[in-house]
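Subject: complex prediction, re-run

Hi both,

The earlier run crashed halfway through, so I resubmitted it with identical inputs.
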Amino acid sequence: MGVTGIDRRQFLVAASGSLGLGLLSACGSSSSSPSPSASKRPALSAEPGNLSILEWPGYEAAGTKAQTYGLLAGTEYTKKYGPSGITYTYIVNDDEALAKATSGGPFDIMHPCHENIPDYVNRGLVQPWDTSLIPSFKQLNPYLVRATQYHGKQYHIPWDWGYGSLLYRKDKVAPADATGWELAWNPKYTGKISLWNGASTNFEIAALKLGYPQMDSLSTSQLASAKQALITQKPLNKLYWGSEYTQEQPNFKSGEVWINYAWQDSLVSMTKAGLPAGFLQPSQGRLSWICGFMLGAQTKNYYHAHAYVESYINHLAAAQMTNLFYYGNSNATVTGADIKDATLVKALELGNPQAVTTAPNHLQSWSPNRPALELAWQEILAA
Amino acid sequence: MDVPGVATGGLARRRPRVRVVRLRIGRGTLVIPPLGIVLLVLVGPIVLLALYSVNLRTNIPGTPTAFSGANWKDFLTGSANPFRERFFYSMKITLLVSISATAAAYPLAYYLAFIARRFRYTLLLVLIAPFFTSYLLRIIAWTDIVLNNNGIVNQTLWDAHLRAHGNGISWLLYSNFSIFLVLFYAWIPFVSLPIFAVLENMDHQLIEAAADLGASRFKAFWTVTFPMSLPGVIAAFVFVLIPTTGEFIAPLYVGGPNNQLFGNEIQAFFGDSPNWNYGAVLAVALIVVVLVLMLLFGRFLNTDLRTQRGER
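This time it finished cleanly. Structure:
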């Protein structure tokens, strides 16, 4: 698959999608009202301005020493308030993020994916955003905005989104085998498969493979079946990868593995590296995800936090993030015309604003039996 | 020499008696600050872990706490408990690494102590030089440069036409072999140090005496050198055994799904999965095992060292 510019048809599809999003966002956006304690809150100038942020590596604000990937998001914030007051604590998956948010905080801003919102709210770790303080909030994809509300409040500002599926080597995997999630269970590829070291994601994959479309609300017996399926699948794995950039992509590139659980950005990266990579469209549907920002319940930097998020979700910052990391972004004004890579526009289905939230994609959602699932995952790892 | 305040002979009689008030600080008093730190940062967390393990504390806000030995019961007596089985698997790997590293370190230490002569400290420095680099970086180097599909080993085999290009050895990485290799590499220089120290301080006249009495070089080694070096050997063995019992970094980077060690299970319970209560059971169990090992081997070690000192 070569890298080409966007063609006229793709541009029109993306542009029409963007227009639709614009209309939807005009009538569908939500605005949480400020909390009752707003009047008691110190003004921005009286805040310490020392933001403590729980973040994925690579998403640090431009202008900070920690940002080495070339991301421009955060530029407005660091220009206005300076980069020195920001400190980052890093996470590699959502389970770890919740554990750190619970025990390692308090943080001013956290960056979990939306399926964790109830856990953060119910543990008293977060408070709703005042969306009127974030000018670009009105530009956000309303489907993503709605998906990230909880109890009618905007606890989560969506920013990055994407799909999860199996990335596979087209020259190594027979087309007849690349039809569904069962590819990860195909003994023909023993030792050449690598799933992610993420409890909930792997249970979702197992659930879809077993034909349980309600992948995040498994009954006890379904959970047991999914666990057994993952135990059966375990010996086929070369490794459960933990880091996208130091394990998942390098192992795929070196030929150590041929079939990876991955996000669509890996498809673009591997294609650019000259590898014949395919991003599986499973018969059961792909996984999809939305991540974004949550506001710490105990933050002393209420207004700084809102300014920080604004500097991430605005049009320019969001578009640059997509071009840099190949993830989707929540700003509906970013269209295919803003994206440099046609492969990416296609992989993200940028013309369809509902793509990430509707079938055939399965939006990863909150699991009511998370503790049981996590213990089961530990048992799979130890088995 | 006259010491002020100390009554000595006639001089003291001529001088008026002055009562000197001294602040008597017992030698044990100096131990209090470090002891306090140890209690605070070592014993304190262990106590906390113990409380978590019996459900008297929780890391999840809003979760009720009440004494429960259910996690302990599950770990110790649960039918085919995977964590218990993982513990025994880990101990096998740990023992294999400890025995191998100690055995391999012995000739190294012997060479440095008896053969290298004036170059021994230079060679020792060369030996430990790579270890001035971060442990994590060295593990990543093993992964990315040496063992992976495009690493030095497979590239060499391909260049020598011993394997088809692109077809690497599958067990080189993410396997028991890679965990063993990396741990072996990581510990061998440190393991050689206590053996070297004992061999270097050994009374060489004893070996000469054995030779004078007609012992062959091997017999002299086996009956004189080796027994006298046993404290160093045991120290070396303990040196690698204790830390590798809780190792998790190497298996995390070079181990596959089936090769993770007990330390990885503990790390996962505290890092990825917010179930500190079960993780605490595993952690406390490991601490108990390590303490038993220390008591066991420490006793042998002390006895042998005292004996050796007495013989001199």
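The interface with chain A takes residues 59-62, 82-83, 85-86, 140, 144, 148-150, 166, 168, 170, 173-174, 252, 255-258, 260, 264-265, 268-276, 278 of chain B (CB under 8 Å).

- K.
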